User: Fold this.
Amino acid sequence: MRYIAFIHKEPDSVYGVSFPDLPGCISAGDTIDEAVQHAVEALSGHVRILEADGDPVPPPRDFDAIMSDPDLEEDRQGAMTTIVPLVRDRGSTARINVSFDLGLLDAIDAAAKARKQTRSAFLASAARREIVE
Assistant:
């Protein structure tokens, strides 16, 4: 799932991110990239709290629905829009079977070792980064 987010920037402030479909879910960052990275974490945490409390998770609306919603007119003023993926951390892992070229696998293992990570941790962080970008 992907949610539309508004990015605002006031003079002498950081970039703020809000989600029209998830009131109260906000994030910020010194740069747009940092704000969006933090927004991924905020979105995941917000949804996790909603689910833990037994509250429904609103489905994401499409861009046209967000842009035509009269209740969001003020929020849209001066805002940039972006799409933020919902990356759920479920707290458990699953063993999977994947295939890589042996040369790529060697490069993965070397990069993981240099970062003091396991192969799985390295691949998970690389996948998360790719999904967010």
Notes: The mean pLDDT is 92. The first strand starts at residue 2 and ends at 9.
